[in-house]
Amino acid sequence: MSVGEYIRESQIWRSIFRHPAPYDRRNRAVVMLTNFFLHLHPVSVKQGGIALSYTWCMGGVTFFLFLVETLTGVLLMFYYRPTLEWAFTDIRALRDVTTLGIMREIHRWGAHAMVITVWLHMYRVFLTGSYKPPREFNWVVGVLLLVLTLLLSFTGYLLPWDQLAIWAITVGSNMARATPVLGHEGPGFQLLNLGGYDLITNASDARFLLLGSRFVGEETLNRFYILHCVAIPLVVATLIAIHFWRVRKDGGISQPL
Amino acid sequence: MESHPDLTVSVIRGLGWFYLIVAVMNAFWTYRVFRSGAHYNSIAGFKDVPKAATWGLYTVVLAMLSFAHVIVDSTPADFLFRLPVGFKNLVDVVIANPISYFAVSMVIFVAMILLRRVWTRPTVAWVLLNIAMLFLGVSMTDYDFRQIVGKPDNVPIVGMLFLVGFFTWLYFYKSVENDRRIAAGEPKIEDEQSEQVLVWPDLVYTEMICMLLLTAFLIAWGIALQAPLEEPASAVKTPNPSKAPWYFLGLQEMLVYYDPWMAGVVLPSVILVGLMAIPYIDFNPKGNGYYTFEERKFSVITFLFGFLPLWVGMIVLGTFIRGPNWNMFGLYEYWDVHKLEVLNNVDLSQLFWVDWLGKPLPRPDANASALSQAGTIFLREWLGFALVLAYLFILPPLMAVTVFRSFFVKMGFLRFMVLANLILLMGALPLKMALRWAFTLKYIVSIPEWFFNI
Ligand code: HEM
User: Fold this and answer.
1) What is the pLDDT of residues A172-212, one digit of tens each?
2) pLDDT, tens digit, 9 for 90 and up, residues A141-171
3) How far is B49 from chain A (nearest CA, A)?
4) Whose CA is nearest to atom 1 of ligand 1?
5) Measured distance CA(B226)–CA(A95) in Å, rounded
6) Which residues pair with B322 in a beta bridge?
7) Closest atom of ligand 1 to CA, residue A57
C-alpha cells in the first residue's frame, strides 16, 4: 500500500471527503454534489456555457478578485489603524518596514482590476443578451453589485490618508452637498424647514451623513473604514450568493434557446 | 527649453523590453501566417511571396529596435527614436479641444460599426493592435506623456483600454460571423457547442488555471509597480487639479456642462435606474444567449454609445487630458497652471432678454412677497423652462408617432415613456456639449437663487 493510498484510506481523510477521488465518471459527478465549494456548480454544463470566448470569464474573475481583496484586506487590517494619528504612517510602514507590505500593492491593483472586470462582465452579459427573460432580475442584482463594487473602491481610496486620498474623496463627496432637497446647496433645500428655520444645513445634510462631519475629517475616516471593511463587503457577499444562486435557478449560463 | 528633461537610460531600456514583447508577439503572428501558407501573387516582380515574409521582416526590425534600446548607454538626450515635434503638436491640437476630441471619438465610433466586417478580420485587427502598441511605446519618450500615463493609478486605465478594445473586437468578430450564418440559415457558433460536458474536469480545471495565472499576475504587478502614497493629507493644500478616483471621472467631466445636482446626483441615478430598466424595456426576444449585431442593432448601438464614447471616452478625457484648473491639455503638452482658457459662457435668459429683446433681465424685487419673486423668476426663465419641459414631455409622444412608431406599438405606453426618457436623458449630455460649443451657452434654466441651474 502506497503512502497516498494509506492516507486516502484513513478514517480522517474519508471523514472529510466522503467519496473516492474523481477518477471515473460517476465520482466526477459525485464530487460536484458532495463538496461544499464545488456544489456552487452544476454537475454538467453545455460546452458553450463554459467557452472562454463566450463568457470571457469576467464574472468568475471578478469573484476571484473579490476573494483576493478579502484576503489581502484582512491582512492589511492587522497593520492599519484608522485614526488621523496613525493612518498615514501605518500605510507608509507597509511600504518601508512591513515584511508582507506588498499586500497593499496587491490590494490596490486588485481593486482597480475588479472595477474593470466588473464592467467587462456587464459588457459581455449585455452583448450576449443574457439579461433577457428569464434572467432580468439577475441583471438587476448585477447592477447593485456594480454600484457596491464602485463604493467599495471609493471608500477604500480614503484610507491611506494622503493628499491623493482626501482630495479625491472631497471632490467625490462634494456632489452630495447638491442633492436636491437633502443637500444644503441643492435645489429645494429650503423646502424642509420648521417655522422659517432651515432643517437642511451643512451640519445636517446628505453630505454630512456621508462624511460624519462638515469636511473630510477623522469621523469620515472612521465611517469609511467601517463601510469599507465591514458593511459593504457583507452586503456584497450576500448579493454575490444571490447572484450565483440565480444563475443556477435561471437555467445556467445563457445559451441559444 | 529642453523638451525631454528626463529621458533617462532606464526609460529607454524599459522601452527596449517593451519592444521586445511586441517583437515576440509578432514572431508568433509570423508563425501563424506561415502555417496558413498565405501568399502574395506578386510583389515588386517576385512571384508567390509568402505573406509570412513581410511579417518576418517586420519582426526582425522590431527586434533590432528593441536591441538598440536595451544596449543604449550614451547620453539619453541624443537618443533618436522619438516622436517628431510636428506630430506631437498636431495630436495636441486635436485632443486638447473638446469639440475635436468628441468629433474624433464619434467618427471612430461610427466607423467601428459601419466597417465592422473590415476591422474584425484578424489581420486588420492585428495591424491596429500593433499601431496602438507602437504609439504607446514611442509616446513614452515624451516627458509629459510619461508623467500622466505612467502615474501608478493610471496604469490600470491603459490596460483597461486595451481590454475594452479587445473585447469589443471579439464581440464584433463573433457577431459578424453569426450574422452571416443566420442570413445563410446555418447554425450559429454557440449552437455548435451544445454538447453536455462534466464540470469536473472541464470547468474546474479552467478555473484553477485562471486563478493561478491571476495570482501570478497580481503578484508580478505588485512587485513591478508600487502603490502610490503622496504627502500626508492636508486640508489646506488643495491640489490642482483635484480629481475624483478614476472610475468617477466620467461623472466629474459632466460637471463641466451641468451643475453638481445634475451631474453628481440626478444623472448618476438616471444611469443606474436606466441600467436596471434595460431588461424590462428591451422587448426584442432575439439575441438571447449568442452574439449578434443585426438582430438587435438598436439596443447594441445605444449601449455601445453609452459605454464607449460617453463612459470610457470621458474617463480617458478626465484622466489624461484634464489638467490644472480643469483645462484640457494635449497628451504631449506641459501641464501649465497658467494656461488660460477664455470662458465667457452666457445663460439662455441672458441671451433671450438682453441680446435678442434688448431689455434688461427681469429682477425679482427683494422686498416683494415670495410668490411675486418666484413669478419674476419664472418670467425671466420661461424660455428655458419651456424648452426643458418640451424636451422631456412633448418630444416622447412625438417620437412615438414618428421614428419610434413601431417601438411604441410593441412596447405600450409605460415602457415606451421610460425608454424615451432614458434616451433623452442620455442625450442630454452630448446635447448640452453641442449647445455649449455652438452658442457658448451656460445654463438653459438659471436660477442661482434656488441652486437650480440646468
Ligand atoms: C461583484 C460583481 C459580480 C460578480 C462577482 C459576478 C459574477 C458572475 C458569475 C461568476 C457569473 C457566471 C457567468 C460568467 O462568469 O459570466 C455571472 C453571471 C451573470 N451576471 Fe454577474 N457578477 C457580478 C456583477 C454583475 C453585473 C454588474 C451584472 C450586470 C449589470 C451582472 C449580470 C449577470 C447576469 C445577467 C448573469 C447571467 C449571465 C448568463 O447567464 O449568461 N453581474 N455573474
Assistant:
1) 888 888 888 888 888 888 788 887 788 888 878 888 888 98
2) 999 999 999 999 999 999 999 999 999 999 8
3) 33
4) A145
5) 9
6) B328
7) 15
Taking only the tens place, the pLDDT of each residue in A95-142 is 888 888 899 999 999 999 999 999 999 999 999 999 999 999 999 999
- Domain layout of chain B by residue ranges: 1-81, 348-453
* Ligand 1 lining (C-beta closer than 6 Å): A 55, 58-60, 62-63, 66, 118, 121-122, 125, 128, 130-131, 135, 138-139, 142-143, 145-146, 149, 240, 243, 247, 253-254
SS3 state at B82: coil
Mean pLDDT of the region A234-245: 97
Task: Give me the domains of chain A, ranges plus CATH numbers.
Answer: 1-44 (no CATH), 45-249 (1.20.810.10)
Of B226, B259, B300, the CB nearest to A178: B259
Separation of first and last alpha carbons in chain B: 44
- State how far the Cα of A47 lies from the Cα of A61, in Å rounded to an integer: 19
Q: pLDDT tens, B260-281?
A: 999 989 999 999 999 999 999 9
CA separation for the pair B120, B180 (Å, rounded): 13
Residue B452's region, left for phi above 0, alpha for psi from -120 to 50, else beta, is beta
pTM of the model: 0.94
Q: Which amino acid is at B388?
A: V
Question: Which residues of A, range 215-244, sit inside 8 Å of B by Cβ?
Answer: 215-217
CA distance B384 to B323: 32
Residues with Cβ within 8 Å of residue B121, at least 6 apart in sequence: none
